[in-house]
Amino acid sequence: MQIFDSNTSKPKPVRFLLELEVSYIGRSRAIINAATRRAGEHIQYDINRQKKSTTTTYHHDPKTF
Hints:
two-stranded antiparallel sheet; elongated
């Protein structure tokens, strides 16, 4: 995600405060939830090591901007 400076029309860095919650389910699965306080976003990483696949689900509420 980028936020542009209205004066220069160039992207400026965005800093987020992350809250991390890690839940381990058995030995092969870990779920990491990260929510940013600033934008009310929710990022969930579902890591399944047995299948060797990683899926990322990103939920963004446009009302927060």
